[in-house]
């Protein structure tokens, strides 16, 4: 049976992650499952976990009064769900709904934040992975907002 | 077969609309047959100047492979006076056609390599002949991946083709939309987000990209980041084309003319021009 650090080492997100840090991450990680329709995160809830998807698809969505929820993006195998754990006030900004059965690694964000605070090298390694992800999603969202395929 | 030389590139031939198929709320596909003679051969990626009599002329890419019929197929979006007049044509109507013009997609050059198609919105139309030709000789290519982005689930062009291609076991087809409700079960996100997850060898891939220019810039950036060399990334540029043979200068793009030197360019020939706002 694979150990958690072995599972994490296979994920592209943790590629080339120093072994000593991988052990620290594994100590905060656990396997989890969600049925289709269940929520991994709810807007406004404490961002005390984030997820690395191993199987299935998740919709990040936002609800507005008197309107159907709008899906902002969908995430799949190998992708991260949840970045709000990185910045205060550590609250989820969107709902994350399993569109189909989902298998994921849940990482205890409070535990990891503590370890990052205690070891800034670990914190920097995590930032080097999360910052490009956040920038990439920001760029993609800007393109979506631009509505580039619409009529001029 | 080499495309035939045009006798007088300014004189349109008369074509008849054989079929009209509504693709989207604002886009139709016209199947055209020559009123007399045969239509010239052409390569995927080339375009014709379509003349709506009494209204004007506009450049429209071929949207079906030359191997699939004796006429021309063009998908036209109602985006202005001329394209609107073309989009309202009915079977039996006639129009003027000059062409084919321009450069094509590097379909033969891609043999033996992975092929990555990145289409945004109506950009799938100029890419469809290239896809059809690649799939007609599937064994000559490595992995084939088709990435399509569009505005919403209601704006997916050529749904029937996408479904047919997706059913094949030797092609990866991914479709994503920018805006969707919870009733959409497909992907949501900008088309460039599909690139890092796609199966291709960046050292041995040819990418063909078509869509709004801003989308192509970001797609090119994502492809470069994935390791695809600029010389292997091909974009189909769009400018206001008039003469279509590089004389009038309407479509000047820096030192190049999109009608004559393009519309399909390898990125390494135009990368310095893409970010220049004035051109």
UniProtKB/TrEMBL annotation, chain A:
Residues 13-113 form the Cyclic nucleotide-binding domain. Gene3D superfamilies: Jelly Rolls. CDD domains: CAP_ED. It comes from the Bacteria. This is Cyclic nucleotide-binding domain-containing protein. It comes from Novosphingobium indicum.
From TrEMBL, chain B:
It comes from the Bacteria. Pfam families: DHODB_Fe-S_bind (PF10418), NAD_binding_1 (PF00175). InterPro entries: Cyt_c3_hydrogenase_gsu, Dihydroorotate_DH_Fe-S-bd, FAD-bd_FR_type, Flavoprot_Pyr_Nucl_cyt_Rdtase, FNR_nucleotide-bd, OxRdtase_FAD/NAD-bd, PyrK_electron_transfer, Riboflavin_synthase-like_b-brl. Residues 10-107 form the FAD-binding FR-type domain. CDD domains: sulfite_reductase_like. This is Oxidoreductase. It comes from Novosphingobium indicum.
């Amino acid at each position: 049976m694979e150990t958690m650090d072995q599972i994490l080492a296979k994920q592209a997100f943790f590629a080339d992650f120093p072994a000593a840090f991988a052990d620290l991450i594994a100590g905060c990680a656990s396997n989890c499952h969600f049925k289709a329709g269940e929520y991994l995160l709810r807007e406004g809830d404490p961002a005390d976990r984030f997820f690395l998807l191993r199987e299935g698809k998740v919709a990040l969505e936002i609800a507005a009064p008197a309107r159907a929820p709008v899906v902002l993006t969908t995430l799949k195998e190998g992708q991260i769900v949840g970045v709000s754990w990185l910045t205060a006030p550590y609250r989820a900004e969107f709902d994350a709904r399993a569109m189909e059965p989902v298998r994921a690694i849940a990482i205890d964000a409070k535990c990891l934040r503590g370890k990052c605070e205690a070891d800034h090298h670990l914190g920097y390694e995590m930032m080097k992975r999360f910052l490009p992800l956040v920038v990439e999603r920001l760029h993609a969202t800007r393109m979506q907002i631009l509505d580039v395929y619409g009529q001029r | 077969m080499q495309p035939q030389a045009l006798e007088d590139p300014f004189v349109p031939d008369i074509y008849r609309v054989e079929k009209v198929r509504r693709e989207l709320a604002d886009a139709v596909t016209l199947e055209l047959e020559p009123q007399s003679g045969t239509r010239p051969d052409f390569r995927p990626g080339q375009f014709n100047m379509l003349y709506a009599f009494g209204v004007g002329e506009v450049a429209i890419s071929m949207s079906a492979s030359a191997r699939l019929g004796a006429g021309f197929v063009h998908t036209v979006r109602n985006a202005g006076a001329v394209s609107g007049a073309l989009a309202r044509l009915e079977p039996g109507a006639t129009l003027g056609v000059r062409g084919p013009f321009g450069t094509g997609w590097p379909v033969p050059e891609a043999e033996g390599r992975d092929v990555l198609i990145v289409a945004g919105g109506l950009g799938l139309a100029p890419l469809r002949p290239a896809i059809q030709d690649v799939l007609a000789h599937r064994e000559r290519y490595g992995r084939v991946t088709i990435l399509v982005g569009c505005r919403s689930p209601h704006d997916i062009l050529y749904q029937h083709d996408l479904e047919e291609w997706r059913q094949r076991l030797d092609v990866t087809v991914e479709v994503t939309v920018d805006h969707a409700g919870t009733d959409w079960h497909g992907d949501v996100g900008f088309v460039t987000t599909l690139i890092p997850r796609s199966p291709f060898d960046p050292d041995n891939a040819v990418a063909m990209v078509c869509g709004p220019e801003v989308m192509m810039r970001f797609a090119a950036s994502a492809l470069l980041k994935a390791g695809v060399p600029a010389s292997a990334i091909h974009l189909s540029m769009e400018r206001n084309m008039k003469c279509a043979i590089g004389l009038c200068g309407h479509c000047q793009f820096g030192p190049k003319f999109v009608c004559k030197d393009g519309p399909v360019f390898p990125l390494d020939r135009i990368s310095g021009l893409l970010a220049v706002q004035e051109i």
